[in-house]
Amino acid sequence: MKRISLVVAVAAFGTLLSGCEALQTQKNATAQPAAPAAAAAPTAQNPPAPPTVPATPPSAAAAPNGAPQPAAGAAQQQGAPVLFLLAQPEKAQGLNELKLKDGSLWYLPQPALSRDDLTRVTPLQEKDGKGVVRFDFNPAGAKKLADLSQKFQGKYLVLVVGRDVVAAPRIAGAMNQGAMFIVVPNAAQAQAITQDIAGARQ
């Protein structure tokens, strides 16, 4: 897994809603995105093809050593920051560029969700060997997730852990159960992401 550096500022979800109109901009938009003072344009060396956030949970079992990790409380003080950023392939005013190997995504600087919205993160493994990271949200986070997944189907949700972009899945459908599942190449990667969030990886 190639990682890329990213510096973003955490903002309130209300600010996100005021800027969401930019995500509806069509491909022929010509305005240049306004980069915030605290943000730097990230780059990617060789990212994988964007996966999809499934609307329903995949069939997965707990990964080896895959005990759920709390994402709040004491672990929150030790673990890496977690951000979920809305993005789209089309350039639009107010969006920042995330450079990929075969193109770019344009993301809203204000996070759609953060680790403050999480209660637990769990690594899982599918029968085919792929890893899955399950994110469970508190009531406020679950409402945000349901709202954005209904409004922005087909857009991307960029997962940032610490200063690294670790996944950029496409939103495939509404997520109304207070949980989100992100598929990664293998169980080891799912475990590593979970440990980074919990602050448990050495």
Which properties best describe this structure?
six-stranded antiparallel beta sheet; globular; disordered N terminus; 202 residues; five-stranded antiparallel beta sheet; Gyrase A, domain 2; alpha+beta
Break the fold down into its secondary structure elements and pairings:
Layout: H1 13-19, E1 52-53, E2 60-62, E3 69-70, H2 74-78, E4 82-88, E5 96-100, E6 103-107, E7 113-114, E8 118-126, E9 131-137, H3 139-151, E10 156-161, E11 164-167, E12 170-171, E13 179-184, H4 187-198
Parallel strand pairs: 1-12
Antiparallel strand pairs: 2-8, 3-8, 4-6, 4-7, 4-10, 5-6, 8-9, 9-13, 10-11
The dominant shape is globular
Class by helix and strand content? alpha+beta
Unreliable stretches covering 5 or more consecutive residues = 1-20, 25-56, 72-77
Q: What's the tally of helices?
A: 4
Model description:
By secondary structure, the chain is of the alpha+beta class. The chain has one domain: Gyrase A, domain 2, CATH 3.30.1360.200. About 20% of the residues lie in helices and about 30% in strands. It has 4 helices and 13 strands. Strands 4, 5, 6, 7, 10 and 11 form a 6-stranded antiparallel sheet that branches. Strands 2, 3, 8, 9 and 13 form a 5-stranded antiparallel sheet that branches. The two termini are about 15 Å apart.
What's a quick, concise take on this entry?
The protein has a single domain (13-23, 34-198), classed as Gyrase A, domain 2, CATH 3.30.1360. Helix content is 18%, strand content 30%. It is built from four helices and 13 strands.
